[in-house]
Design a protein that fits this description.
The complex is a heterodimer of chains A (197) and B (368). With 197 residues, chain A is an alpha+beta fold. In chain A, the strands form 3 sheets. A two-stranded antiparallel ribbon of chain A has the order 1-6. A two-stranded antiparallel ribbon of chain A has the order 2-3. Chain A has a two-stranded antiparallel ribbon with strand order 4-5. In chain A, strand 4 and strand 5 form a beta hairpin. The radius of gyration of chain A is 17 Å and the shape is globular. The model of chain A has no long low-confidence stretch (mean pLDDT 90). Chain B has a domain of 235 residues: Fumarate Reductase Cytochrome B subunit (Up-down Bundle). Chain B is 67% helix and 2% strand. In chain B, strands 1-2 form a two-stranded antiparallel ribbon. The longest helix of chain B has 36 residues. Chain B is elongated, with a radius of gyration of 30 Å. The interface between A and B is large, with 62 and 73 residues.
Chain lengths: 197, 368
Amino acid sequence: MARMKFLCDAERCIECNACVTACKNEHEVPWGVNRRRVVTINDGKPGERSISVACMHCSDAPCMAVCPVDCFYQSAEGVVLHNKDLCIGCGYCFYACPFGAPQFPQVGNFGSRGKMDKCTFCAGGPEEANSDTEFKKYGRNRLAEGKLPLCAEMCATKALLAGDGDQVANIYRERVVGRGFGSGAWGWGKAYPGSGS
Amino acid sequence: MKSTTDIAKSIRSVCMALIAVTVLAIGSIATPAAAQTTSPDVATEAQSTDLNTGFWSQIRKGATGNVSIPDKNAGVLIQSEGDTAYRAFRNGPLKLYSTYGLLAILFLLSLYFLLRGRIKIDHGRSGITMERFNGLERFAHWLMAGSFVILALSGLNMMFGRYVLMPVIGKETFAFITLWGKYLHNYLSFAFMLGVALAFILWVVHNFPNRHDLVWLLKGGGLFTKGSHPPAKKFNAGQKLLFWSVVILTISVSLSGIALMFPFETAFMAKTFAALNAIGFDLPTSVSAIQEQQLNQIWHAIVGVLFIIIILGHIYIGSVGMEGAFDAMGSGEVDTNWAREHHSLWVEEMEQKAKSAPAAGSASQPAE
């Protein structure tokens, strides 16, 4: 089975934030929750680069390792998902995550962070695929419909790639060859150590 | 740390592979094209094999960019400490040594009970009692004790429950219990702080060290010698050590707990490091908001486990470990023989007081 991965080509990202908007709209995420964000390094200076970042669905995910209630699970496609019925909103996954992916809706006064919310690679949650409950808790399950994550699908410059890790790597490699330079597959060393591609 | 080097190695191999592919491809195309593509390119340092100085290595080390969302902390692309420090320490040494510590105290207490048995009142019960702790003192104690037990259990559950309790009762039940444990932990922490504050006010005067404490400590409090009862006032040296431990640990555990309850709003670790650096330590001077949270969580757990270990000893000696000890906090009335054996100087003080105010006894019988 394909191992799903994200790759953001920093040479192509133009910081249009369409991926962020697409994600928010597709999953109807609440205010203050950002499953995806665009970070600009060297903003306004020579060598400025933008990178779209969300949960990278790490091979050996730190969030899964530190969760006190073991609410995470990794699908056969390598997508890191979680069960909001189990989540207690302790925030430890956020402390552990290298990419700042977990988000917590503010649901009241101190200590009452809501259930964690994060990028699902458009793969929903443990509920029945594309059921009402699944949509309300996790958003659309596009993978179950045979579609890829909307952020990457909507990317105008095709900077953001999502899908089978081998194919993503091949596309990126072809690009690097074609243009004669590249910037390295951003975040891959951290998220997918030893993947070799 | 092992994972960091592994990752660095794999990045290196990824880059080497990419460069190799690039070079081969360029070589196969006509030279003018190669001349074009190899013309100096602004700011892409990825072709550099020296990852320590490269642009991407800066990002790996936590370089911060700009984001258009309000949370400016989101400008950090990669914070490797979450994995290489926080997760590695929490799931590694922290869990391991906490387990050792807790098992060690349980083992030592069991061993002590087997060897020494219950410490009896040497002269037997006299049947006459005297007041040791009044209602307010006992209220303060049980406010602390009651909340501490729940805080300790819910805290241990956060660290060990996933491995100990969850396989037994199932994920759903465990998550439900842990969620309520979190609520109780958050709210009862204030009851606990209040209890400690009250106990501090009530007992601090009795807890300053005096010359008898040295004797008490040298004799090991009589814990290891039958019939040995070094003199003590209201509190002996052991109790004073417990008192000050509780005060200091409560302050420390409360500060880190507050940092966890109000995340990203405190800088306790940065301030502590600055203070320690002033007395010669060499600790990081800048601590990011997320590192504050990581360090506070780790510290909260360390202090919590230490606290539990100390209190287990206290619970032992106050219950099964010593005959007559529980009465002090139970009814507040202790047997005079117990009091004479364990707090001889305090009994003398009380007797002096009773003599100097002889009317007190009759005054306590109210004339309707």
